[in-house]
Write a structure and sequence with these properties.
Layout: E1 5-10, H1 16-26, E2 29-33, E3 37-42, H2 44-53, E4 59-68, H3 72-80, E5 93-101, H4 108-127, E6 132-133, E7 140-147, E8 150-156, H5 178-187, E9 195-198, H6 205-214, H7 236-247, E10 257-261, H8 264-276, E11 283-287, E12 301-305, H9 317-331, E13 335-341, E14 356-362, E15 365-374
Parallel strand pairs: 5-6, 5-7, 9-10, 9-12, 10-11, 12-13
Antiparallel strand pairs: 1-3, 1-4, 2-3, 4-8, 7-8, 13-15, 14-15
Helix pairs in contact: 2-7, 3-4, 5-6
Keywords: Methyltransferase, RNA-binding, Transferase
Protein name: DNA methylase
Domain THUMP: 46-157
Length: 385
């Protein structure tokens, strides 16, 4: 039996509860929620499973050593003394990233450099050969986290951020991050039991993440590589077994996922990404201006979108947000409409009172995910508080 060990899944601000819940569903043990992270334990197979199956995680780290640190020399010595030959060959390659919350050290790049020096010197002193740095495809990616005086050294099992799912070859000017999109859909409570619409779909990220959630498809099946595939203990048979077990849990979906965009180039890109994700059977994309559309049929609709914001488009925000409110009121009865915005002033012009507001960040922009519930059978602008 493989031994269990501690891991840390990193996530975006506001997604900690979602990630905790995902880890419970996957079968993690000793789950402990932090800020922008959730710690848990599992074996090597579970590490593979977490990387393949978690929608709201951006990294899965495996801590291997924790110590207190008092200065740069102390850091160097303690890292030098670690048994690095357990993890890396002297002819291998490495990359290091550091996160610092400490008054002892001010520069994360300097800490990365110091860590690299300690590891390289250790190999050179014991074998006469030294590993090289490779920032793109290292054999070992190491994470250094210093919080005040406590330093944790972890192996990064993911490599590239897990938002890089592998289906996106075409993007528009400011595509929404895949982890953010998945988290928004989960926060909005959509469970695949109604039609789903993104009326400003850009490169199709929200639609693809919604289809994967509806069908319970693991989000990272299409990734070209995880960092753990270069580790000394990489077990391809175990990985394939985990992949197979996750695929057995996919389910049917009996509703529609619809995307609109008024830019023909966005529609083309979105269709290409949907095809890459092999989800054409579930997603329909049309070249439409949302403000000229109306809801088809009487069935309940779940709408979620990321309206363009001022930093990237030259539009009159007051008019734009008023048009969103008017279109929802007049043309979309029986709809739960959610959208994320970082333009908090513009929200006042929607002309509806949101029934929910959730505080989030879109990249570094402070944002709100808002919900408007449109009554069925009324075009007079009734809405719920």
């Amino acid at each position: 039996m493989e031994e269990n060990f501690k891991m840390v899944a990193k996530t975006l601000f506001g997604f900690e509860d979602l990630l905790e819940n995902e880890l419970i569903q996957l079968g993690a043990q000793n789950i402990k929620k932090g800020v922008r992270n959730v710690a848990f334990s599992g074996d090597k197979g579970f590490m593979y499973k977490a990387n393949l199956g978690l929608r709201t995680a951006v990294k899965i780290l495996k801590p291997i050593h924790t110590f207190t640190v008092s200065n740069e020399q102390d850091l160097y010595t303690k890292i030098y003394n670690m048994p690095w030959d357990n993890y890396l060959k002297s002819s291998g390659t490495l990359a290091i990233d550091a996160t610092i919350h400490s008054d002892l050290f001010s520069h994360s790049l300097y800490i990365s450099q110091k860590t690299k020096d300690a590891i390289v010197d250790k190999f050179r002193d014991t074998t006469g050969e030294r590993p090289n740095v490779d920032l793109k495809f290292p054999d070992l990616k190491i994470n250094v986290h210093i919080d005040r005086r406590q330093c944790t050294i972890s192996l990064d099992s993911s490599g590239d951020s897990l938002h890089k799912r592998g289906y996106k070859t075409a993007t528009n000017i400011a595509p929404i991050n895949e982890v953010l999109a998945a988290g928004l859909i989960m926060l909005s409570g959509w469970d695949g039991q109604t039609d789903f619409m993104d009326p400003m779909c850009g490169s199709g990220t929200m639609l693809i993440e919604a289809a994967m959630i509806a069908c319970n498809i693991p989000p990272n099946l299409m990734r070209k590589e995880f960092a753990f595939e270069r580790w000394e203990d990489w077990d391809v048979e175990l990985f394939e077994k985990i992949e197979e077990s996750l695929l057995k849990k996919t389910r049917d979906f009996h509703h529609k996922i619809i995307g609109y965009d008024k830019a023909p180039s966005a529609v083309t890109k979105a269709k290409e990404n949907v095809k890459n994700a092999q989800l054409d059977d579930f997603i329909e994309i049309k070249h439409e201006d949302f403000f000229k559309t109306q809801k088809g049929g009487n069935s309940k609709l779940h709408m979620l979108f990321n309206p363009p914001y001022g930093e990237r488009l030259n539009i009159d925000m007051e008019v734009f947000y008023k048009d969103i409110g008017d279109t929802l009121k007049q043309n979309y009865p029986g709809t739960d409409a959610w959208f994320i915005t970082s333009n908090l002033d513009a929200l006042k012009h929607v002309g509806l009172r949101p029934s929910r507001k959730i505080h989030l960040f879109n990249a570094k922009l402070e944002s709100r995910l808002v919900k408007y519930v449109m009554y069925e059978g009324s075009k007079k602008g009734k809405y719920m508080k």
